[in-house]
Specification:
Distance between the termini of chain A: 32 Å
Helix content of chain A: over 70%
Oligomer: heterodimer
Strand order of the largest sheet of chain A: 1-2-3
Strand order of the largest sheet of chain B: 1-2-3
Strand content of chain A: under 5%
Strand content of chain B: under 5%
Low-confidence stretches of chain A: none
Structural class of chain B: mainly alpha
Largest sheet of chain B: 3 strands, mixed
Mean pLDDT of chain A: 90
Radius of gyration of chain B: 30 Å
Low-confidence stretches of chain B: 619-631
Order of helices and strands of chain B: EHHEEHHHHHHHHHHHHHHHHHHEEHHH
Number of helices of chain B: 23
Largest interface: A-B, 63 and 61 residues
Mean pLDDT of chain B: 86
Structural class of chain A: mainly alpha
Number of strands of chain A: 3
Order of helices and strands of chain A: EHHEEHHHHHHHHHHHHHHHHHH
């Protein structure tokens, strides 16, 4: 082992704490422990991200090793993930009171954070692959937590799709091991052009399959189908992080493969770029359309994630700085907004057991804070200024309309608009029904059902973030510009 | 107007103070309703005072990095007039709201969103670039939605949903246009865009972008064919909100149209023609709908649509007349202002009727104002103004627009081109003017002159309006004849202030508003109005009921309902069906493939129960009883993955 061993802490802390949490029977102490672990982890990650650390934990062979490094991209995702994980955990403390076996849930919830940190900080493709698989396996218990046959089936489907996707990724790594100068992530790519010469097309096929494989986690067509099955059955805090964060695990892998292994220059202008842009456009439309047609709120949100994470893929595949900035902004804004929406859905289930969108009439009068948060997050997801979704859409569109992409770019941007319209179509009626149940609605039957502070505080914090980051996106954009400056 | 004050803090104050005021007011209103009302007056009075401080100078203010690109405000004469107008109308409606809203539920919510809307409207009128315009335009669409839906009955919710749907759709299309414009021009600053567009030798690629940008603004202005939301939304909103919608919120759409026409396509005859066609259709259609309507507020709503058609025609004439568009520019800006002032009076008067009777149907409100001279005179002022009768303000602006059409006929005739179609426009213009008189007379006669054979009980106790409400009405009504009697001292000054923004030139000579040739147009309009009223409205749109009383009937054919017959079916049924079909096809592609594969692999397992809806990876027997099958199925799935990986390995090794 050489390097700064402190970098192991973000992975080890959740691992050890998770084990203790899992066997802690006393609810109060366990909850306290969960909160402290998450808070310490978040502080630790933010602190680590102030500096630059690297660590080689174990060297297997000359080329393969487990190594971590806090580069710009890793820091960006780690800070985002650890913060949102903390807020969702606070929410879960209350929510899990009405689920069985909360200890098991929190154990795996904590473990997954470790795997995600490992994923963020991984410095080479082997570490990335292992973390990625750990992340999959450790989140399966979250999906099947309720133990119903439906949940178990969904968990298996999730596992199957993810393993298949990761398998495609692994296959790609076999190739890259041969064709890359080093398996470490280097901004701008590490392909050995002398070896590649003459076999460009093989490598493009490999890249295509890898993108499809990792795109599975990001819910990209054609391997998106696990998402609408797995998200609705998981407990709401779990679906929130599955949708908001775990899908971004796929995004991290795609960014690493695209920009840190192959390099944008190798891919720019090839058929692979066109093909992936087309796939992401298809996904954007498909997800929004299916969400519009769906009546079960959590599944509607899951389809919405399918669509929204493909905005990110669209931006990344533009292979231009503007697209990259738009994509990373969308990563943050979608993570925040989608977490709010799932947590609101959870709060509604927790308090009223209502799951279908047509049952929500008048709910805004019962839980005003929750539904206000829902409304703000909806506006952000549609992209209404000054909420944050508008800013990311602005940059994605500017990237997409660059003359280089011609009609495809215009189609893509137009599809973003169509998708925004559909988003309005599937989210706003919920808000309208909730706040404006109609004159004949029996208001006397309504009681205040606002959940307690454990649920409302995370929601309000996230909602404030969703508006403030839209009004003042500059600090975030400077951060992203720093990352994209390294790559391009 | 020469001094440019940069970083004039009044501009952001006008925009952001109402937002703060809204939040504070909401907090106050939770505990004390009376204090909240007073706070509302303080906020609107402060904004009004602030807007007055802008007069006489040019101001600018920039907030860098707001929403990414940064927003900037700018007020020249045009912006100052609009800011003062907005603040004044807001102040008056807020004062009026006190009595009107007493009986309503959710007043706290109402005031909260009223002030959010005020801030957003200010933001639009004071914006120096299209990015700023768009941001506040979207905020305004959403906050005003709450004002429209306030009453929450079924028809209200439906109308409000239409309003929101059109606003969202329009906003997104405009955004698409802005994306493309920004991509090409690299700026959205209005003056820089004008310079950029002037430098383009070929404007053809920009027409499509222009139409996209216009779409959202046109939708908000109620321009055909996106007017469907307008009659419904105006009718269902509380009267002060209807007044705000008609006076100012719809005008933001007109403002946007002015930006596109006068900043992007300055003096562009082709663009002018397009706008002219839309304007003429909107003008005629609104007037016809208003004549047919039997609902007090709906008539005024359709009237707003028609009057906005007049303004749009004036904007179009600016484009068609090119350099010599002084009359058209003055007509645009003055009708913009005059219509706001007129509709304020009319909607508030109707609000008084509604707060007493809780009815808007002409047959029910009939005779309400017969013994109420003050309300009668106030309404009459509005009527005479909007019908374009000389000595009232509407006449001035309509005459200017009419003169600009006549001027264009002369230009075409001098160039030896056909003037037939523009003469057609003139005829329709005068005809619509006549119909304006006809439908306003219909309202006036019904509410203030006729007796009601079936009187409706008054719901309100005490006087029909209190002193404050009366004062607001009188104040807003007095301005109308003053503007009409002293056109050179008032209207010409305003027109001059607005000229710079529209890049128009000064008129070559002083306009003689009361010259004989200008009065000729009015004569035709009044004759048309009399004919329409006596021969059409009284003969065709009224009939004797079973008791032998003459009543108003709704004769508008249902099959002409464009929203119910075309927009809703297409947008809510046909398109989602087609889209949903393809989306489902794509969505179930992978799962379907897996299901087929699984059938091929597991087809020998006859003893196993496979539920038909199970299209997942593992074969599964229902319930948790039989764990072996589940494990076996999963193991086989892993095996398949393993085989796949092995094949990949072999390929690599070879």
């Amino acid at each position: 082992m050489n390097g700064n061993a402190i970098l192991l802490l973000p992975m080890l802390l959740p691992l050890i704490a998770g084990l203790i949490i899992g066997f802690q029977k006393e609810e109060k102490q366990r909850n306290l422990l969960v909160f402290i672990t998450m808070a310490v982890e978040a502080v630790l990650v933010w602190w680590l991200c102030l500096g630059e650390h690297s660590l080689e934990a174990w060297r297997m062979t000359e080329r393969l090793s487990i190594a971590y490094h806090t580069d710009g991209l890793g820091k960006f995702f780690a800070c985002l993930i650890s913060t949102i994980w903390l807020l969702a955990a606070v929410f879960a403390l209350e929510y899990m009171k009405h689920e069985h076996k909360p200890a098991r849930f929190f154990m795996f919830y904590t473990f997954s954070l470790g795997a995600l940190m490992s994923l963020c900080f991984s410095a080479n493709m082997m570490t990335l692959y292992l973390s990625y698989e750990f992340m999959t396996i450790l989140t399966v218990p979250l999906v099947i937590h309720t133990g119903t046959p439906e949940a178990v089936r969904a968990g298996i489907k999730y596992l199957g799709y993810s393993v298949f996707g990761a398998g495609l990724g692994l296959m790609g790594f076999f190739f890259l091991n041969t064709y890359c100068v080093t398996t470490d992530f280097v901004a701008g790519g590490t392909l050995d052009m002398a070896l590649v010469a003459g076999r460009e097309n093989t490598l493009l096929v490999v890249f295509f399959l890898m993108a499809i494989g990792f795109g599975c986690k990001a819910g990209m067509f054609p391997l998106h189908a696990w998402l609408p099955t797995a998200h609705p059955v998981a407990p709401s805090p779990a679906s929130a992080v599955l949708s908001g964060i775990i899908t971004k695990g796929g995004v991290i892998a795609i960014i690493r493969v695209t920009y840190y292994l192959f390099g944008a220059d190798f891919l720019r202008g090839t058929w692979v770029q066109t093909a992936l842009l087309v796939l992401s456009i298809v996904t954007i439309f498909m997800g929004s359309m299916l969400a519009y047609k769906e009546k079960l709120l959590k599944r509607r949100l899951a389809y919405s994630t399918v669509s929204n994470v493909s905005y990110v893929v669209f931006g990344l595949m533009l292979l231009s700085p503007l697209g990259f900035v738009g994509a990373l902004l969308q990563v943050v804004f979608h993570a925040v907004a989608k977490n709010i929406l799932f947590l609101c859905a959870g709060a509604i289930i927790y308090k009223t057991e209502k799951t279908y969108v047509y049952e929500y009439k008048g709910i805004g009068k019962q839980m005003p804070i929750v539904m206000w948060c829902f409304a703000l997050a909806s506006l952000s997801l549609i992209g209404i200024p000054p909420t944050s979704g508008f800013v990311s859409k602005w940059y994605l569109a500017q990237g997409g309309l660059a003359p280089a992409f011609g009609a495809l770019g215009i189609t893509g941007v137009a599809m973003l608009m169509v998708s925004a319209l559909l988003t309005a179509g599937y989210l706003l009626p919920i808000v309208i029904d909730a706040f404006f149940p109609g004159k004949d609605f029996d208001n006397t039957s309504l009681q205040k059902k606002e959940p307690n502070y454990l649920m409302t505080v995370p929601l309000v914090l996230l909602s404030v973030a969703v508006v403030c980051m839209g009004i003042l996106p500059n600090p975030l954009m400077k951060w992203i510009a720093g990352i994209s400056g390294m790559i391009f | 107007m020469e001094v440019l004050t940069t970083n004039n803090f009044i501009l952001p104050f006008l925009v952001f103070f109402p937002f703060i005021g809204a939040v504070v007011g909401y907090g106050i209103g939770r505990s004390n309703k009376g204090a909240r009302d007073i706070w509302a007056w303080i906020v609107s009075a402060a904004v009004f005072a602030g807007s007055l401080m802008l007069i006489g100078k040019e101001s600018a203010y920039t907030l860098p990095s707001f929403c990414g690109l940064g927003i900037s405000f700018f007020a020249d004469g045009f912006g100052v007039v609009l800011a003062v107008l907005t603040a004044a109308i807001w102040l008056l409606t807020t004062l009026f709201s006190k009595e009107y809203m007493t009986e309503e539920r959710n007043r706290n919510r109402y005031y909260f969103f009223v002030f959010l809307t005020l801030g957003a409207t200010m933001g639009i009128f004071l914006s120096a670039d299209l990015f700023t315009t768009f941001i506040f335009f979207e905020i305004m669409s959403f906050t005003s939605f709450v004002l429209v839906i306030h009453e929450e009955d079924d028809f209200t919710i439906r109308s409000a949903q239409t309003y929101l749907a059109v606003a969202v759709l329009g906003g997104l299309v405009t955004l698409m246009g802005l994306f493309m414009m920004y991509q090409l021009a690299g700026t959205l600053n209005l003056n820089e865009l004008t310079a950029f567009m002037q430098a383009q030798p070929d404007k053809r690629p920009f027409y499509a972008i222009g139409v996209l940008i216009l779409f959202g603004f046109g939708a908000k202005a109620g321009l055909f064919p996106l007017h469907v939301w307008l009659p419904g939304a105006y009718t269902v909103a509380p009267a002060p909100s209807s007044a705000l919608l008609s006076c100012l919120l719809t005008k933001t759409g007109v403002f946007g149209t002015i930006i596109v026409s006068c900043k992007l396509f300055l003096h562009d005859a082709k663009w002018g023609s397009l706008i002219l066609i839309l304007g003429v259709i909107t003008m005629v259609m609104g007037a016809v709908l208003a004549v047919f309507s039997v609902n007090l507020k709906r008539t005024l709503a359709c009237s707003s649509m028609s009057q906005i058609g007049f303004i749009i025609i004036a904007i179009a004439m600016q484009g068609l007349l090119g350099e010599h568009n002084a009359l058209a520019a003055a007509g645009t800006f003055l009708h913009f202002i005059n219509h706001s002032l007129l509709k304020l009076v009319l909607f508030l008067s109707v609000g008084v009727v509604y707060m007493n009777l809780r009815e808007l149907d002409l047959n029910k409100v009939r005779g309400f104002g017969k013994d109420k001279p003050l309300l009668k005179i106030v309404f009459l002022m509005g009527l005479l103004g909007i019908a374009g009768v000389p000595l009232w303000n509407g006449y001035i602006s309509k005459t200017l627009i009419h003169e600009s059409i006549v001027e264009y006929i002369a230009v075409l005739a001098a160039a030896g081109q056909s003037t037939a179609w523009i003469r057609c426009v003139e005829v329709l213009f005068l005809f619509s003017g006549g119909m304006t008189l006809a439908y306003m007379t219909k309202l006036f006669v019904a509410v203030f002159l006729e007796d009601n054979p079936y009187p409706v009980e008054r719901k309100k106790t005490g006087a029909y309006m209190n002193k404050l409400t009366a004062a607001v009405l009188v104040l807003s009504a007095v301005i109308l004849p003053v503007f009409g009697l002293l056109p050179h001292g008032t209207q010409d000054v305003l027109a001059e202030m607005g000229r710079g923004f529209m890049n128009a030139h000064a008129p070559e000579h002083m306009m003689h508003y009361f010259a004989l040739e200008n009065l000729k147009g009015v004569k035709i309009s009044i004759m048309v109005g009399a004919v329409v009223y006596f021969l059409f409205i009284r003969k065709v749109l009224m009939e004797k009921d079973a008791n032998g009383n003459l009543v108003y009937v709704d004769r508008w054919p249902q099959w002409l309902h464009i929203e119910n017959k075309i927009y809703r079916p297409v947008l809510l049924t046909v398109l989602p069906y087609i889209g949903g079909f393809f989306a489902r096809l794509a969505g179930s592609l992978t799962d379907g493939l897996i299901a087929i594969l699984r059938m091929l692999i597991f087809n020998d397992d006859n003893g196993r129960v496979i539920p038909p809806e199970d299209k997942y990876f593992s074969a599964y027997t229902g319930g948790e009883t039989d764990k072996t099958v589940y494990r076996e199925g999963f193991a086989r799935s892993l095996l398949m993955i393993g085989i796949g990986l092995t094949i990949a390995m072999i390929y690599i090794l070879l």
